[in-house]
Design brief:
Length: 478
Amino acid sequence: MTTYPELKLYIDGDWRSATDDLPVVDPATEEVIGRVPVADQATLDDALEAAASGFETWRRTSPRDRAGLIGSAAALMRSRQDEIANSITLEHGKPFTEAQAEVVRGAEFFEWDAGEAMRTYGRVIPSGPGVKHVVNHQPIGPVAAFSPWNFPMSQPARKVAGALAAGCSIILKASEETPAGAVHIAEAFHDVGLPPGVLNLVFGIPADISQHLISSDVIRMVAFTGSTAVGRHLTGLASDHMTPVLMELGGHAPVIVCEDTDVAAAAESSAVRAMRNAGQVCTSPTRFFVHQDVFDQFLDGITSRTAATVVGDGMETGVEMGPLANDRRLADVIELVADACDAGGELTTGGRRIGTTGYFHEPTVLAHVPDRARIMQEEPFGPVAIVNPVDSLDTAIERANSLPFGLAAYGFTNRADYVDRMVNRVEAGNLSINTLEASLPETPFGGMKSSGYGREGGTEGLHHYMVVKSVSHSISIV
Ligand code: NAD
């Protein structure tokens, strides 16, 4: 199966084309595989109107009915797994099996939040006779959401799941570079009969769309996943209107490898995880701080497993890593690796573009990279692991915390006192010990510092899509 779907806007329950469009490129071949419509301002106004009226319908829909519809749409996505995965691999480049897993993860986000829709409990505050104080959680209102290109289906799923489960309507601007995942989501909701206006999907010029939507009085909340720079810009726009934001931004995840760990297993797992999605994951393990006693063994292990990564077109069987998703990423990774080498870093494997067609880059390991290299401060967002020795856990924690980011962090150790020190001192929204899995639908995910604020998933995931209303009721007038 290699067909790519026709891409449309979805406004007020209807599919729409547009006068202007943009090309969608297969990063493995650089061929144009589709065209994504560009929403003009009149279309955005229609989406705003639809979201306003969709909200009135959806907020009155019981949580049980909302959960039922969301669950049915998720089931449809699961049944369309291969069709959706096919689109994802074509537009993004990731291996087909990873794309299949992404569809399942996206469906799980919907299923988890659908369950949570029925558990947005309030509370009764004790008071004197004849008086009742009740805390209610109510949907905040129409949401403007912006999802990135690295997970074409599961990233939009996070936003749509949270908003719809909480009882909000949403206008989603998904990535123009990888638009099909979001189109498949809208299709599933359309097919299960979501009321018009509850979910609206637009594409276009990102800066124009965010400016237009966030400035509207209709929009009551802004959700964004992407770079810290764009997150800061959108937070500024939202603050002009006192609109709350949920920001999932960049990371540069530290991995602390202690001397007591199973070094071979840690190195193997690190190599596989660092190259997943060609490293284009905000929680990718990137900065390895390895105790000097086990440094050589760890570096050998991660280098040999990384060098063995099978790279190729994601549609081919057995491929473990596809191309980078766009030409900007390829250029950035090449530049960052060259700069690291100029600064004195040592390449132990990889470091170059593969071929001349497609945005393929070798799986790469850099060692002994000095802090003055750009890659020690900037998230590579590509297939690069940076491995440096440290003399103690305290030094590792200090170096882990030295950047303005605080999204995911990892540790490999079996010592309870080491774990305790990491839990208390590592600055990250998500800390994982002896596993490189940073988040699941049931665990709250989000950052500290410049990695953003707010949480998606877990019980916390719906909080940002809801407002607290405290109601005091006295039986007689006082
Ligand atoms: P970018 O900063 O240009 O864009 C990041 C995302 O924001 C894209 O999806 C883009 O469409 C969107 N965007 C850009 N300007 C916008 C605007 N004014 N309004 C609304 N949306 C806007 O960077 P890029 O080249 O696409 O990606 C590179 C960097 O972005 C990476 O290095 C990484 O740090 C970050 N990124 C992070 C995630 C994540 O999951 N946190 C995902 C994708 C990209």
